[in-house]
Amino acid sequence: MKSVSKKVCLLGDFAVGKTSLVRRFVYDLFSDRYISTIGVKVSRKTVVVPAEPEVVELTIMLWDLAGSEAFDLFRASYLRGSAGALLVCDLQRAETLTHLANYVDQIRAVSPDAKFAIAANKADLDNFAVEDAALFGFAAQIDAPVYFTSAKSGEKVDTLFRHLGRLLV
Ligand code: GDP
Ligand code: MG
After folding, report:
1. Is the CB of residue 35 below 6 angstroms from any atom belonging to ligand 1?
2. C-alpha to C-alpha distance for 59 and 142, rounded to whole angstroms
């Protein structure tokens, strides 16, 4: 089986659930305690994805960046070499969706061919502030699949990462 390795960045505002989604996907764990990400953490997971002419063993290197403004100066070097990005918004905070366009611009500046997927996260909660029309309109613009995920319950997390994986091979 052919093996490939791809870098994927997690992008989205503070506390949308980026670190929690990585933890759920890689370790199948969730914690309600807030774990602040300092700088960058790289985790990896290998999945088998369909490709032509045969399946590929894909190792996804997940780069979890801190959302803090303090990292803006270093952001370009973290983003460089990304084959894709997982864009994460929090369904209870509408502005976390509108801000995703800025992250797309930043990554495209250094990785023009990057592929995207969108996690509309915290789907286990209610009182959603993100409008479906805004979410799917944005997704269509950047040609990205959307999944309503919950890092807490695990809902759609694996499906989302596998879909992004298929876009990378
Ligand atoms: P990050 O700053 O984007 O990395 O966000 P974190 O992963 O640290 O999560 C921020 C907070 O949201 C933490 O208290 C998490 O426990 C919580 N959280 C993350 N994902 C979910 C989810 O899917 N559902 C719920 N209810 N809480 C979540
Ligand atoms: Mg984090």
Report:
1. yes
2. 24
Query: What is the number of structural domains in the chain?
Result: 1
Cα(16) to centroid(ligand 1), Å: 6
125: CATH: 3.40.50.300
Domain membership of residue 161 as a residue range: 2-168
* Residue 92 CB–ligand 1 contact under 6 Å: no
Give the global pTM.
0.94
Cβ(142)–Cβ(112) under 8 Å? no
Cα Rg, the chain, nearest whole Å? 15
The CA-to-CA distance between both ends of the chain, in Å, stands at: 13
- Kindly give the distance from the C-alpha atom of residue 25 to the centroid of ligand 2, in angstroms, as a whole number: 14
* 7 ligand 1 Cβ < 6 A: no
Q: pLDDT tens track of the chain, all 169 residues?
A: 899 999 999 999 989 999 999 999 999 888 776 666 667 788 999 999 998 889 999 999 999 976 555 556 667 888 999 999 999 999 999 999 999 999 999 999 999 999 999 999 999 999 999 999 999 999 999 999 999 999 999 999 999 999 999 999 9
